[in-house]
Amino acid sequence: MAKEPLSQVDKKLPLVQNLSLGFQHAVIAILAAIPVPLIVAASTGMSLGQTRFFISAVIFTAGLSSILAALDLVPRTSPKLPMIMGASFAVVPVAIATLKAASSISVGFQIMAGATMVSGFLCFLAAPFWAKLQRFFPPIVIGTNLMVLGTALLPNTFHWMMADQAYHLTASVVPKAFYLTVGVFLFYVVISKYLKGMLGNITILLSLIVGTIAAAFMGMMNFATVKAAPWFAINMPLNFGLPKFDSEAILTFLIVMVLGMVEVSGTATGIHNIVHKPINRVQFGKILKTLGLGTLLSGLFNSVQPTSFVPSVGVLDLSKVHSRFPIATAGGMLMVIGFIPKFSALIAVIPKPVLGGIGFAIFGVIIGSAVDILKQVDFNGNQNKLIIGLSMGITMIPATYPNFYAHFPSLVQNIMGSGILSGALTAILLNIFFNFSDLRSKIN
Its GO CC terms (predicted)? Predict the structure, then answer.
């Protein structure tokens, strides 16, 4: 009988190899960090200064969360896993709704901080019991939720393409913006076909760089805020003021937290399989404790809920180096980058049409990942197809009619007005309704 491969997650590497692999993971991780603050900032009218700080905070906390996953800094909480953390896309609609409903962006960040910190704390408390709750999130639910997520976020690509004409439903696209978006998109398609290995894993970053350079030559960029931004600044906790604890915001962020727990559990399982590290109930608990602690700290630093970044799994598989220490190194690099406002200022001034060009890739990959998970689902003799169809239908309501729930109480608006939350909840509840007998057999 063949022996199981030994895990190398605890193997310490030579300094040069550790730094080079850490840098590679850090570059990949930046892609997991910057899209979320850019989407939220573009949709809420943040100033460039606020956007710059938000980007820095997200990069900083992504690094901090990655370190917590790799190193046992807080005793008995870390899974000691090579898992890069980024920002959760599921947070986007509730963050936008919270910031728009607040009297100012600063007050909105205070409410977000309170809701994020409470969500993280409750996730930490629920971690030991998560293994028992996972039966409610089989592949049909996880796959549908990912499809809901990608579909609900895809319209952002069209808004970015429209640039200053976004959300004006009778407006036409500006030719210059259209050509830039299509150019970035085609560039991404071509390099995705021909680049392999390390370069193949950073095609989105390369497209972002080339698109930004093209935008500069087209006269679509203003570097004044980049020049004015300092080279170094410490991200102070609670930059926008003390957290505010709004019950409706906390409930909506808790729903996003549950979705994040499902997502991280799935990704972590894949990582364990790749690195040949045993996974059990205690290990699952540590994974969720790390997520909860990372979320609590993210709220403290005015960031958003972190999540494991799926492409990092591919990097682990390709590199064949499974040590957790390069991940910790990457986390440290991200924290340092979070202290460089000039970098965040440069990200903040990237024209929206450039983001539109890579948006199809970012959100399309999420939908593709959903299809991959749904291949595991049995569709014979059950209503699983209906679960997917109805969930997608509910998701599309707010995308088609943004004010569909305007006459309902604010709590209903916050939950049902988000296609991600309403679609995900529909999938969870319909699975319980249609597949209750299967769930009950697992309980017994």
Answer: plasma membrane
Task: Please report, for residues 292, 306, 331, the alpha-carbon distance to residue 68 in angstroms, rounded to integers and kept in the order given.
Answer: 11, 12, 9
Q: pLDDT band for position 73 (50/70/90)?
A: confident
| Cα dihedral across residues 314, 294, 263, 102: positive or negative | negative
Let me know: does 180 contact 357? Beta carbons within 8 Å.
yes
d(CA 310, CA 6) in angstroms, rounded, equals 23
DSSP alpha helix (H) spans, 45-138: 48-70, 92-101, 105-126, 130-133
Residue 412: both structure tokens together: 């209903």
Predicted confidence (pLDDT) at residue 179 exceeds the cutoff of 80: yes
Amino acid identity of 250? I
Yes or no: say if 259 and 46 are a contact pair by the CB < 8 Å rule: no
Query: By C-alpha distance, which of 210, 217, 222, 223 is closest to 358?
Result: 210
The rounded Cα 87 to chain-centroid distance in angstroms is 4
Region class of 148: left (phi > 0), else alpha (psi between -120 and 50), else beta: alpha
- E-strand ranges in 217-322 read 306-308
Looking at residue 140, what is its pLDDT? 85
Residues whose CB is less than 8 angstroms from the CB of residue 169 and which lie 6 or more positions away in sequence, other chains included: none
Please tell me the total number of residues recorded for the chain in this structure.
Answer: 444
Residue burial 231-247, b: 16+ Cβ < 10 Å; e: rest: eebebeeebbeebbebe
CA distance 355 to 41: 13
Number of CB atoms found within 10 A of residue 441's CB: 9
Q: Strands, E, within 116-202: which ranges?
A: none
Read off the pLDDT of residues 209-240 as tens digits, 9 standing for 90 and up. Answer: 888 888 888 887 777 777 777 788 777 788 88
Q: Which two tokens stand for residue 86?
A: 């980024």
